[in-house]
Specification:
Blueprint (H helix, E strand, L loop, with lengths): L1 E6 L6 H20 L3 H20 L3 E7 L2 E4 L2 E4 L3 E9 L2 E9 L6 E5 L10 H9 L12 H9 L2
Antiparallel strand pairs: 1-2, 2-3, 3-4, 5-6, 6-7
Helix pairs in contact: 1-2
């Protein structure tokens, strides 16, 4: 019913990688000289995992909402697995479709909806369609962590 493409990979400049590398190296050196070896190990592991995840991420992911449920890439969630949804706005612009799941290990999924207009989809239509199947949550906002992640380009 509703389909759009979600960018999967962030395009960082060489300067971004340089700054991130300098910060990681500085934290590692500081951890060694201050005797916090665990900090050094954690910084190195996290940096490596981030680079691996970014290099192995698909360029784009397809998001689809229909009468059976929501599909994100290869993963399908039927409406029985979703407890509620919210549309997250930032400065009057819809940013994410946040779905709260009934699963214990994965509670929320944020699907970017920035590109909906380019596919001729109105977020109000998506909201009306989903209300037929699951309730809408209330009071969801862009959190401080979401803002930091967006600002840092992670």
């Amino acid at each position: 019913m509703y389909e759009w493409i979600v960018p999967g990979r962030k395009n960082h400049s060489a300067g971004w990688y340089t700054v991130a590398g300098i910060i990681a190296l500085s934290l590692s050196i500081w951890g060694i000289f201050s005797g916090m070896y665990a900090l050094t190990v954690v910084v190195i592991i996290m940096s490596g995992v981030y680079v691996l995840m970014e290099n192995n991420a698909p360029d784009t992911t397809e998001a689809m909402i229909n009468q059976n449920g929501v599909k994100i890439g290869d993963v399908f969630y039927d409406y029985g697995q979703i407890s509620s949804f919210e549309i997250i706005f930032q400065q009057e612009v819809p940013r994410y479709l946040r779905m709260s799941l009934k699963k214990n290990n994965l509670k929320t999924i944020d699907i970017p909806v920035d590109m909906l207009g380019e596919f001729g989809i109105d977020i109000g239509d998506v909201r009306s369609f989903m209300l037929q199947y699951i309730p809408e949550g209330e009071g969801a906002e862009v959190t401080l962590v979401d803002r930091i992640i967006e600002r840092l380009g992670l």
